[in-house]
Write a sequence for this structure.
């Protein structure tokens, strides 16, 4: 909570769900506080991006296999063109998704949690050095539970994912 | 193929109630099932780092399978030579050894998963089911105890049997809980098949008690579960090995074309995020 505004209130305000009195109070605060005004701009931007992405994915759900192939190709082109960097969080999610079909979402989640605990003191540092340690720990855990092939796969894909410096 | 073998074994077990001559196939089929499982467990253990708990678990299952092959081979020879073994005969030694190794393997699987925090939380219903299973495991023992007469050497081994039957049954529940906590995946399927093996064997043993074995229905249940249960063990090994093969194939695909594979992974992530937002 910052300036007495909770995360829930931010979301409600963006969704237009705050009751009239709270909404007016919120508006008054925003006009007086440049920090919160900047936060609102940033949140509005990301909300727009998420809505755009949601619309695109909704369309993808109603598409034929051919269209899904095209989406995949577009995604591939994006990756190839920009050599993307991932945030620590995104890269962790990708590694987790990678092993879920084999070892289960619960196992993958537990391994991620433990690997995080071992690799970082706290939080989600966007730090390539920490990423390497995380991949190594995750790989070790997957090796012990799902076999060395799983550990090798995690290592390989983990090396391939480029985590951006914060 | 293995599913077909399981169904065929169950059908043969039921048919043997009406046509006892079919029983001649029982022991040889069990030898085949355990031999296949042995090969799979050995391969699987090779896919784990040396000294790891899971490697130990799969190796113990391999040893248990190997001893079961020996046991059913002896029983097979005995059947065809018409010198029926009694309950107190020395074939109890491999039976108990296989059970000890199976129990140790199940404990090792539990420890392997507990190391990452799975299989450590229980519900009250789990305790109730554990109680039911422990009771079921003791039923055949209680009925057979009076029928025993026996040599001083074998008696202590026989007295271990109820314990060795009930512990794997209790551990089956633990594996079931771990399977649920795993949230799907090929490994969970393999664990569920081990659970099916343990439970179907327990059902066969409980229903086979003298009080129930005179009923045709119980004979049919014993026939189906008794003949098919071992194939679930083989299926569990096959599914676990399939996991290794699938991961190996995916690793090869990533080596050949990482961009395409990563694009697929990103698409999957986007789809999941979208589903979560809905």
């Amino acid at each position: 909570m910052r300036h007495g505004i909770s995360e829930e209130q931010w979301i409600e305000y963006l969704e237009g769900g705050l009751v009239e009195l709270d909404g007016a109070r919120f508006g008054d605060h925003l006009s007086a506080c440049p920090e919160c005004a900047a936060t609102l701009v940033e949140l509005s931007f990301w909300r727009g991006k998420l809505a755009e992405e949601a619309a695109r994915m909704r369309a993808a759900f109603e598409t034929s296999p051919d269209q899904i192939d095209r989406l995949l190709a577009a995604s591939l082109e994006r990756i190839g063109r920009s050599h993307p960097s991932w945030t620590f969080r995104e890269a962790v999610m990708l590694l987790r998704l990678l092993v879920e079909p084999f070892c289960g979402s619960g196992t993958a989640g537990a391994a991620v949690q433990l690997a995080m605990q071992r690799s970082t003191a706290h939080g989600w540092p966007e730090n390539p050095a920490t990423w390497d340690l995380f991949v190594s720990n995750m790989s070790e855990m997957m090796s012990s539970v799902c076999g060395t092939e799983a550990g090798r796969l995690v290592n390989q894909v983990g090396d391939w994912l480029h985590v951006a410096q914060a | 193929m293995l599913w077909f073998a399981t169904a065929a074994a169950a059908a043969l077990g039921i048919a043997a109630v009406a046509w006892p001559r079919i029983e001649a196939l029982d022991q040889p089929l069990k030898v085949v099932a355990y031999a296949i499982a042995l090969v799979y467990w050995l391969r699987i253990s090779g896919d784990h780092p040396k000294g790891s708990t899971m490697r130990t678990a799969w190796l113990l299952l391999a040893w248990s399978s190997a001893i079961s092959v020996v046991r059913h081979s002896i029983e097979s020879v005995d059947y065809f030579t018409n010198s029926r073994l009694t309950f107190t005969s020395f074939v109890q030694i491999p039976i108990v050894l296989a059970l000890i190794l199976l129990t140790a393997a199940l404990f090792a699987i539990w420890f392997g998963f507990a190391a990452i925090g799975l299989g450590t939380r229980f519900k009250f219903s789990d305790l109730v089911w554990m109680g039911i299973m422990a009771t079921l495991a003791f039923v055949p023992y209680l009925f057979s105890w009076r029928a025993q007469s026996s040599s001083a050497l074998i008696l202590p081994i026989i007295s271990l049997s109820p314990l060795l039957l009930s512990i794997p049954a209790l551990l089956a529940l633990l594996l079931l809980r771990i399977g649920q906590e795993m949230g799907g995946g090929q490994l969970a399927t393999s664990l569920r098949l081990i659970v099916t093996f343990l439970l179907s064997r327990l059902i066969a043993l409980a229903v086979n008690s003298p009080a129930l074995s005179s009923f045709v229905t119980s004979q049919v249940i014993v026939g189906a579960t008794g003949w098919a249960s071992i194939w679930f063990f083989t299926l569990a090994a096959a599914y676990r090995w399939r996991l290794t093969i699938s991961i190996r194939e995916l690793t090869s695909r990533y080596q050949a074309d990482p961009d395409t594979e990563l694009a697929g992974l990103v698409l999957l992530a986007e789809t999941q995020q979208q589903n979560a937002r809905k």
User: Anything to note?
Assistant: Residues 113 and 154 of chain A are 15 Å apart (CA to CA).
